[in-house]
Amino acid sequence: MPAARPHIEPRLVPTADSVVVKEIYLSLQGESSHAGLLCAFIRLTGCHLRCTYCDSEFSFHGGARRKNADVIEEIKALRTPRVEITGGEPLLQPGVYPLMQSLLDEGFTVLLETSGAIDVRLVPPAVHKIVDMKTPSSGEAARNDLRNFASMNANDELKFVIGSREDYDWSKALIAEHRLAEKPFALLFSTVFEKLHPRELAEWTIEDRLSVRFQLQMHKYLWEPNARGV
Ligand SMILES: C[S@@+](CC[C@H](N)C(=O)[O-])C[C@H]1O[C@@H](n2cnc3c(N)ncnc32)[C@H](O)[C@@H]1O
Ligand SMILES: Nc1nc2[nH]cc(C(=O)O)c2c(=O)[nH]1
Ligand code: SF4
Ligand SMILES: [Mg+2]
Fold this sequence. Notes:
Strand content: 15-25%
CATH topology: TIM Barrel
GO molecular function, one term: magnesium ion binding
Keywords: 4Fe-4S, Iron, Iron-sulfur, Lyase, Magnesium, Metal-binding, Queuosine biosynthesis, S-adenosyl-L-methionine
Cofactor: S-adenosyl-L-methionine; Mg(2+); [4Fe-4S] cluster
Order of helices and strands: EEEHEHEEEHEHEH
Bound molecules: S-adenosylmethionine, ligand 2KA, iron/sulfur cluster, magnesium ion
InterPro entries: 7-CO-7-deazaguanine_synth-like, Aldolase_TIM, rSAM, rSAM_sf
Strand order of the largest sheet: 3-1-2-4-5-6-7-8-9
Binding site for Mg(2+): 56
């Protein structure tokens, strides 16, 4: 049993065959290159970051510990080939690693949303990792683990959530400095919802001829932006 970490509630100290789950639901994937596709979501409890714009603060606490086997049965009952594990920060819970492997073994396409602040080397390579690069306006840019670039493959996506011109210039400079356009993984540019107008980001990207995929959080336009379970 790993030692308790101060940022995790004692209840969240992980065991290998279970995870603390905030919610499970079926929706359309609203983000990433997989946007628009039917997708089940497993949102895990707990996060060690506090991004200024976080739209999922409700997942910092609560939820219930569930056996991985039960989680997999619930996902199978949703009748979708695709599942995303998000949070909170999913990689804080050791039980998530066997959960991802079991979902792959069951034949699911598995996506993972993670903050970019945790080493992703132990994530099974077949998982589609969507790794954030925390920009200055998140208040958490110092937590980025740039070593993750070397652990990401062609299944993966590096995502910049941009809330200002400063964030945009910072992102552009990081891409140039680390030659990220030459890496096997995709680059995503998204806006912080209702902080930066999407058209501004689109126009900057066109002006600079950037090789990135512009994307929005589609579910926030389909449903009420604060709706849960979508
Ligand atoms: C809620 S987080 C959960 C996974 C992980 N903690 C992370 O940050 O990647 C999922 C995604 O939502 C993005 N996100 C959170 N709040 C947002 C907002 N207000 N506008 C746009 N994207 C947001 C995050 O940057 C991240 O890419
Ligand atoms: N529809 C939908 N797509 C999503 N993609 C990533 C999400 C997340 O919260 O991580 C999310 C979400 O909350 N809803
Ligand atoms: S890392 Fe993700 S869940 Fe945690 S505060 Fe930031 S956006 Fe929210
Ligand atoms: Mg979300």
